[in-house]
Amino acid sequence: MSAFRSRLDDGWALTAQALVFAAGHFGGTMAEPLVHGNPFLALANNFVLNAPTGLALGIMALRSRSLFQSTVVHMFLDTMRRAL
Fold first, then answer.
1. What phi and psi values does residue 56 have, to the nearest 5 degrees?
2. Is the dihedral of CA 36, 27, 47, 7 positive or negative?
3. What pLDDT digit, counting tens, does each position of 36-73 carry?
């Protein structure tokens, strides 16, 4: 996030980090290859599900000026996903 903020304003930095967050979670949300065998749909599904989460966690980190809260929320979400 800090690398993006050094080059972009906060809005674009949040958007960029949300896209990187979503890309980093490809394959973890659901069985993307099962989305009708279409890799474009799998990629779109991944970004639709993960980019808003990345955006929310980025806003949380930006406002709190710390990664602690967003890291705890991310761990909680991962734990709940595995528990279900």
1. -65, -45
2. negative
3. 677 788 788 888 888 999 999 999 999 999 999 999 99
Provide long-range contacts, Cβ within 8 A and 24+ apart, for 34-37. Answer: none
Residues in the chain: 84
pTM over 0.85: no
State the SS3 of the chain: CHHHHHHCCHHHHHHHHHHHHHHHCCCCCCCHHHCCCCHHHHHHHHHHHHHHHHHHHHHHHHHHCCCHHHHHHHHHHHHHHHHC
Is 29's pLDDT higher than 60?
no
